[in-house]
Amino acid sequence: MGCFELLKTTPSPRIIKTHLPIALLPKSFWENKCKMIYLARNGKDVAVSYYHFDLMNNLQPFPGTWEEYLEKFLAGNVAYGSWFDHVKSWWEKREGYPLIYLCYEDLKQNPKKEIKKIASFLDKTLDEETLDRIIHHTSFEMMKENPLVNYTHLPTAIMDHSKSPFMRKGVVGDWKNYFTVTQNEKFDAIYKKKLSGTTLEFCTDIPSA
């Protein structure tokens, strides 16, 4: 059974996960006022994460060196297009639609607060025990060991975990281990130009406690 057929036969409420930019999302999603949860992550860590994913994902072209890949990322010549355009367009779309815009960095710093936001958005009430269980099972450490989400069940021909695990680090600020000073300055300049005029801000580092 194909994906579309499966969706048609799955009773409501259905959960659909996608990385698609707004322009490629079916118009019916907006027309039917489907509730949407958008999770954004700071672009510097996204670039590093994408690079390692493309290293191990044999369905994608070989990304080349980090320097080569970052140039492609900054130009938007990667899967799902420009990160800058992606996060900006979804940010602007949140007005007038049942869309909640979350940041990965906020989830890392205060998962309970962010999960409560999601529950409220979905008109759900969670007791403390259920909330704690959700936090436990959705932690990076638990998900990294969960074969339902870490893709270790896939053959090496599709995802080669010897090159890089699918669930790699999940930290905020790993970009500092890869970006040169010049690369960081170039990213910041493009960020300032692309996201000018918006109130969208990203956290690129979480200080150690």
Automatic annotation (TrEMBL):
It is found in: Cytoplasm. Keywords: Cytoplasm, Transferase. The lineage of its organism: Eukaryota, Metazoa, Chordata, Craniata, Vertebrata. Its main location: cytoplasm. It comes from Apodemus speciosus. This is Sulfotransferase. Belongs to the sulfotransferase 1 family. The keyword Ligase does not apply. PANTHER family: SULFOTRANSFERASE SULT (PTHR11783). Its EC number is 2.8.2.-. Residues 5-198 form the Sulfotransferase domain. Pfam families: Sulfotransfer_1.
